[in-house]
Design goal:
single chain, alpha+beta, 3 domains, 40% helix, 24% strand
């Protein structure tokens, strides 16, 4: 029996497309009161537990699997070959569907809107074209990711355990606090050292620290990134380009994680401390015309919509105009002096309001790129 035959046997009677199930809910949580590292790490693991019990299944040959229907949802299942037990069907989540499409050379946006039988025909044709293996990452019996079988499972439980050990041995654990967390397809803990905070302006305190980032579903390596965090408005900024930033791919021996983190964490804290000095210097770098400065932000990677959002934030923060003013009115209001500090902070404020975690972090890094270059002049 072929994979296509199996899929047709389970096909729905309607022409409506099958849909993937939802991914784990992605959330950015700014903690009103900073948390101990252990408490913050447990919140991440609790969110995973709510999402469903984790498990992995190796598909040694994707040609022996079929794409079909499970209660109206996209799913894959082993083909019941002779001598092989019929296994359970595994519903696909959004990300897993996109990753499977990429592996078999099918465009996800196109396949998503086809009638169910055509979806199955396209996907099963792609899955039988050539021999390849994959690792299916499950949560609650649903496929949350389809990754390479070489993928080293540096999951959050292990990463956070090792980070805790490294912080403890380096003497940081009693002092660090977690200011923000991200859960979902991207995991992140924003860790600062409150005892070393600096007031760069009156009542304007900045802490330095590191972001510990990870993804269990193939979207992010294990990352250590220097950061700064402005308490008055909970704005964060990540190092754009840094020798202290570390990226550890999910490939190879997971045991290397401990040694790399042991060396990386103290260096990242030290570089983040230097970024606080950049903030301080930025308060003294004057800009004659805010409009010209804002229009130049595209050179730092910001798009047109982001440039306008930064302009709105700047005029609102400085009390020049309400943030909902028209673009033309904002343009006229920006012909005034400002500082590099104010512009950098406006960028991080726009990043703070981004709902998507990856978009937020990217804009924070663009803000750091701006701060680094302009404060050095």
């Amino acid at each position: 029996m072929t994979a296509t035959h199996t899929a047709e046997h389970t096909a729905p009677t309607t022409l409506a497309p099958l849909h993937p199930r939802r991914d784990q809910t992605e959330r950015w949580i700014a903690h009103r009161e900073p948390l101990d590292f252990e408490d913050a790490a447990q919140l991440v693991l609790d969110a995973h537990a709510e999402d469903g019990e984790r498990d992995d299944v190796v598909a040694h040959d994707v040609r022996t699997w079929a794409f079909g229907n499970a209660e109206g949802s996209m799913a894959i299942a082993p083909v019941p070959l002779p001598g092989r037990d019929v296994g359970a069907r595994f519903p696909l989540r959004e990300l897993a569907f996109s990753q499977l499409c990429t592996r078999v050379g099918a465009p996800p946006a196109y396949v998503r809107n086809l009638p169910a039988k055509l979806q199955m025909a396209c996907m099963n044709y792609g899955m039988t074209k050539e021999k390849q293996s994959a690792l299916l990452r499950l949560a609650g019996g649903e496929v949350r990711a389809v990754v390479s079988d070489r993928y080293a499972a540096l999951d959050d439980a292990l990463v956070l355990e090792v980070v805790g050990e490294v912080l403890d041995k380096a003497g940081y654990l009693p002092e660090v606090r977690v200011r923000a967390s991200a859960v979902g397809s991207h995991t992140l803990l924003r860790i600062t050292l409150p005892a070393e905070c600096v007031a760069v302006r009156k009542n304007d305190i900045i802490e330095h620290g590191i972001d510990i980032g990870n993804s269990e579903v193939g979207l992010r390596s294990v990352q250590i990134t220097p950061i700064t965090y402005r308490l008055i408005c909970t704005n964060g900024m990540r190092a754009w380009r840094s020798e202290a930033a570390v990226r550890m791919r999910h490939v190879g021996d997971p045991k290397r994680l401990r040694d790399q983190l042991r060396d990386a964490v103290p260096v990242a804290f030290a570089e983040a401390r230097g970024d606080v000095e950049r903030w301080r210097k930025a308060t003294e770098v004057l800009i004659d015309n805010a409009l010209d400065e804002i229009e130049g932000l595209r050179a730092f990677g910001l798009g047109q919509a982001e440039v306008l959002a930064v302009a709105r934030e700047l005029v609102a923060t400085n009390g020049l105009l309400p943030a909902n003013s028209s673009a033309e009115t904002i343009t006229h209001a920006l012909g005034v002096p400002t500082t590099v500090y104010d512009v950098a902070n406006a960028i991080t404020a726009v990043a703070r309001d981004r709902g998507d975690v990856a978009a937020r972090l990217t804009l924070e890094e663009q803000g750091h790129r701006y701060l680094t270059r302009r404060a050095a002049q």
